[in-house]
Amino acid sequence: MPRPSPTRQAPRRGRPGYDQETVLRCAVDLFNRRGYDGTSVGDLARELGLTKSAIYHHFPSKADLLKGALNEALDALAEVIDTAVASEDGAHGTAGDRLVFAVRQAVHVLVEHLPAVTLLLRVHGNSEVELEALRRRREIDAKLADLVRAAADEGSLRADIPPELTSRLLFGMVNSLVEWYRPDGRYDAAAIADAVTRLAFEGLAPRGR
């Protein structure tokens, strides 16, 4: 009798080599394109060519993917502001100098972490993860407002605009970059940072200067 032919194995699903960072990058891209609520773990698995269990090997839930993305943006922004605040007697000099440093570096953070920052700016507090992200954003905003106040008190900024409003306008200008900045575009991070700081701080200079 002829020997039975070997049973053909079904093709393995997924492609090897995807690490946690790659999975997160793909998830952020899908969240930005489809919305967090409109994206499932199954969608992510299909995009990567993996099984859902392979996704769960890296992240226990979709919420953990969102948390990882938001923390990427928040950690980078918090580091910039904390560095500026902590260097009161250090390399960045006056409160005005430290505020300029904070705004310039915030531009670089946005450029370097554009997908994660874009996702952060779309958070509305619809879950515990989003509420925590909003709480951290408020902490960053408060520290920036304190830095603006210190710069106004020392005479580096005009004092007729409330510090909270100035800080919101400054970060509003930086955050607007997510609407039009493209990594392959005409302007790099340094050129944008120069333009933002010149426009912002020439307008915020004390009157009479």
From TrEMBL:
InterPro entries xref list? Homeodomain-like_sf (IPR009057), HTH-type_TetR-like_transc_reg (IPR050109), HTH_TetR (IPR001647), KstR2_TetR_C (IPR041490), Tet_transcr_reg_TetR-rel_C_sf (IPR036271)
Is this entry keyworded Transcription regulation?
A: yes
One Pfam family, please name it.
TetR_N
- What keywords would UniProt list here? DNA-binding, Transcription, Transcription regulation
Q: Where is the HTH tetR-type domain?
A: 17-77
Portion annotated as DNA-binding: 40-59
What's this protein's name? TetR/AcrR family transcriptional regulator
Recorded source organism is Streptomonospora arabica
